Amino acid sequence: MRPNSRHCRPGGYTWGVLSADVPSLSGAVFLKNVSVFRREVGDEAVDRAFAALTREHQDLIDHAVSAAWIPVTAVDALYTGIAREAGRDLWTFYPDVVRIGISQTLRSVWKALLRLTSDRALIKRTPLIYSRGHSIGTIEPTIHGPGRATVVLTQWPNMPALRRLGVAAGIQATLEVAGRKDVRVTYDDTNDGAVYHISWKP
């Protein structure tokens, strides 16, 4: 997995232009998650998972840089392989990885977010944070009262289950880093995304 910037251009790769229709995760988010996986399970498990991927997925991941978009098919194949090689349950392990990665990013890149004291102001930032990490989908947040909100994600038909889980973990991490307590996020699948039900201690 060797990042190489000469293979990357904004929105895709020079050696194989990435279509805007391909659901993708930002390289910055992907690389942060991989670093967390390595710290949690060790380099050997990550490298074995990478070696088990198809050549196409290996090529996409091997040239990943922060400014690139990485197809979620390749991302999720690697994450699934890491959990398998490490003997971990992906569905309980992956949310922890997301929360750690987002917490580190918010504390370093999005410091201004931590200064938001209004729940409404904080929730209103979620579409911007989401768009920085995903090439597809839009989200619309709604505050229902103290400690209650809904985030509706649309325009992602056939959204993979692991992506729905990742977004839920990301929402939870954002609120926790901003100082909200007892954050809970559940979600319902929809035909073109998901509906996230969020609560926290007012």
List keywords for this structure.
202 residues; two-stranded antiparallel ribbon; four-stranded antiparallel beta sheet; 22% strand; alpha+beta
Topology:
Blueprint: E1 8-9, E2 12-13, E3 24-26, H1 27-41, H2 43-51, H3 55-62, E4 69-71, H4 72-86, H5 90-108, H6 119-124, H7 126-133, E5 138-145, E6 148-154, H8 161-177, E7 181-190, E8 193-201
Antiparallel strand pairs: 1-2, 3-4, 5-6, 6-8, 7-8
Gross morphology = globular
C-alpha end-to-end distance? 44 Å
| Unreliable runs | 2-17
* Helical content class: 40-55%
Q: Could you give a short account of the major beta sheet?
A: 4 strands, antiparallel
Description:
The chain has 202 residues and is of the alpha+beta class. It has helices spanning 27-41, 43-51, 55-62, 72-86, 90-108, 119-124, 126-133, 161-177, and strands at residues 8-9, 12-13, 24-26, 69-71, 138-145, 148-154, 181-190, 193-201. The strands form three sheets. A four-stranded antiparallel sheet has the order 5-6-8-7. A two-stranded antiparallel sheet has the order 1-2. A two-stranded antiparallel ribbon has the order 3-4. Strand 5 (138-145) and strand 6 form a beta hairpin. Helix 3 (55-62) packs across helix 4. It is globular.
Task: Give a summary of the structure in a few sentences.
This protein is α+β, with helices and mostly antiparallel strands.
